[in-house]
Amino acid sequence: MQEIKVELTQNPKQKPADESKLGFGKIFTDHMYIMEYNPEKGWHNPRVEPYHAISLEPSAMVFHYGQEMFEGMKAYKTEDGRILLFRPDKNIERANNSNRRLCIPEIPAEDFLNGLKKLVEVDQDWIPTQPGTSLYIRPFVIATDPFLGVRPSDTYLFMIILSPSGAYYESGLDPVKIWIEDDYVRAVRGGIGEAKTGGNYVASLKAQVKAHDEGYSQVLWLDGVERKYIEEVGAMNIFFKINGKVVTPVLNGSILPGVTRASCIDLCRHWGLEVEERRISVDELVAAAKDGSLEECWGSGTAAVISPVGHLRFEDSVMQIGGGGIGPVSQKLYDTVTGIQTGKLEDTLGWTVRVK
Amino acid sequence: MQEIKVELTQNPKQKPADESKLGFGKIFTDHMYIMEYNPEKGWHNPRVEPYHAISLEPSAMVFHYGQEMFEGMKAYKTEDGRILLFRPDKNIERANNSNRRLCIPEIPAEDFLNGLKKLVEVDQDWIPTQPGTSLYIRPFVIATDPFLGVRPSDTYLFMIILSPSGAYYESGLDPVKIWIEDDYVRAVRGGIGEAKTGGNYVASLKAQVKAHDEGYSQVLWLDGVERKYIEEVGAMNIFFKINGKVVTPVLNGSILPGVTRASCIDLCRHWGLEVEERRISVDELVAAAKDGSLEECWGSGTAAVISPVGHLRFEDSVMQIGGGGIGPVSQKLYDTVTGIQTGKLEDTLGWTVRVK
Ligand SMILES: Cc1ncc(COP(=O)(O)O)c(C=O)c1O
Ligand SMILES: Cc1ncc(COP(=O)(O)O)c(C=O)c1O
């Protein structure tokens, strides 16, 4: 494990006074973590520095060929003042899976975790404490060779930045309306869908804008081959409860393997619910909505943790689920996962990692 | 049309002395063009500045969500000292098609062309003149909002940079060996394949590395749905001559509509050759190679203009085409397109645009 140099800021920023106005992803803390890569030294020079702009050649490969990887996770402050990360090993493992697909050199897991902890420790006073708030953590890698040929870059920057984030739901869980997209495609098997990389997100924007215009908050993607099987939501995985069973799309190579998804599956099984990871066609959904066997639907992701889905729209049919309200499994998952994350519930599964 | 401010460099760089050592995309000229976008002013403040690094927040959206568009074209100096662009209107139109797909605001065509011409004029002494050399032009847009939510950025930078480029073929046309990929997928209909954007290129790296390791210079992609139909090469479109007819994959939404492709089709038709834009299955190719009706194969793209393909490999079968040499149509296309580009042949089709 490499030693991290720490340079503290001389000009600390004003911390946001009102935690109800934090929003998401727009305020950044006083410091950031950086590590560099080149073929001679590998990943080297890990350091915590005052948060600052980065300077890159206009020819830097990241601007042209999309060689970029990111992760998303959160830190929470418990009522008794501990700082907890939620399953960071899962994010680090996924980051390196993404890196491999994108021809980015893998990051030693211990340096990654160590950097994460050090940065959060340095900026711990930025962690908000109101219910539902957290410190959002954004690790990312960008390709920096000043070169326009198409090939993997030789040099990279790995950075971590932190953003205090407001409660996703202002007043408790709130069901969302979701648009099932049958025109645009986000990702396809054999492509980069299971990697967390910019190309998948830019591909999603156009449909997202369309869905918003129609009054839907997110897009649910169908597979790119048959345009028939449910994949995932813009920034969440998706679950259904059909006829008493929990069902979620199987990881097929074009879906992001969510950390929250894995945790939902574990918890549901732990509670004795039957969980199926399998293909789910949109026709099956429409039929289940019609005959009443579609009991619940929710999204799972770091941002909202659990997002109950009240309405699904596919082409001209609008499906109301569970009367448009919050189902019992969604609520229990939300309470349990956030309970563990914030230290309110005992972490019997060993999912949290303490900073310091 | 907006007026362009010009600030000339006080520290001109040393120009490369040996034009045979230019390579591709690694040397940049003294100046660059920049224009900014925000919702209030639209695209504004176009300027030519000394080439310099750009400074961005680590949270700039381009690093996270891949909202980036680029183009590629070339300027040539004729023997009598004129400077020519090749069909820049086509690149500008394609740039704005890409922009629409990527939710990037369109760039006024006249400001784009004007910026292009002004920059090339300012750096005209950088245009190499040896046979096969050119000034490569890279226009690109990046999303700059310092924000981690997934949505189209509000602010952007549009830049153009220039790179003197060496001859693609050191000593005349040289056939390449191409690997038909049946495992990884580059793009899929409904996705971003027909946009010129980073996500498509990062998706291609892994197969490209594999093909190189096997001794093949580029990858030929199959469609992402049936994994059966020929799409395009890493940075070229592909043409076949089968039984006397020129055949190229039809633009289906996942293929980049190449400017060189369009020019090849026009020229071939002009010469009285029959040209079909249609689906071509890899099985058809293998069969045509076996029975001798596959007479020629070439790639078309700005970098190499025309790349004769001597060998195609699909799974375990290696197809040698035209004895592995250069076919007559490939040679004639190469001579004609480069002849028009460099002003050696009369531009009867009105394809070139003079700078100044
Ligand atoms: C496309 C996509 N799917 C699913 C998820 C959920 O993953 P996780 O639970 O790890 O946050 C995310 C994001 O966070 C995502 O961006
Ligand atoms: C994926 C891809 N296909 C085709 C082409 C050929 O297009 P053009 O002839 O406009 O250069 C390019 C690039 O230049 C490309 O990147």
UniProtKB/TrEMBL annotation, chains A, B:
- Alphabetized CDD domains for the sequence: BCAT_beta_family (cd01557)
Query: Catalytic activity annotated for this protein?
Result: L-isoleucine + 2-oxoglutarate = (S)-3-methyl-2-oxopentanoate + L-glutamate; L-leucine + 2-oxoglutarate = 4-methyl-2-oxopentanoate + L-glutamate; L-valine + 2-oxoglutarate = 3-methyl-2-oxobutanoate + L-glutamate
Cofactor needs: pyridoxal 5'-phosphate
The catalytic activity of this protein is classed by the Enzyme Commission as 2.6.1.42
Q: PROSITE patterns, alphabetically?
A: AA_TRANSFER_CLASS_4 (PS00770)
Keywords assigned by UniProt, alphabetized: Amino-acid biosynthesis, Aminotransferase, Branched-chain amino acid biosynthesis, Pyridoxal phosphate, Transferase
Q: Give the metabolic or biological pathway.
A: Amino-acid biosynthesis; L-isoleucine biosynthesis; L-isoleucine from 2-oxobutanoate: step 4/4; Amino-acid biosynthesis; L-valine biosynthesis; L-valine from pyruvate: step 4/4; Amino-acid biosynthesis; L-leucine biosynthesis; L-leucine from 3-methyl-2-oxobutanoate: step 4/4
| UniProt-annotated stretches for the region Disordered | 1-20
What are the recorded GO MF terms, alphabetically? branched-chain-amino-acid transaminase activity
PANTHER family this protein is in? BRANCHED-CHAIN-AMINO-ACID AMINOTRANSFERASE (PTHR11825:SF44), SUBGROUP IIII AMINOTRANSFERASE (PTHR11825)
Q: Which family does it belong to?
A: Belongs to the class-IV pyridoxal-phosphate-dependent aminotransferase family.
Write down what this protein is called. Branched-chain-amino-acid aminotransferase
Which species does the entry assign this protein to?
Answer: Neglectibacter timonensis
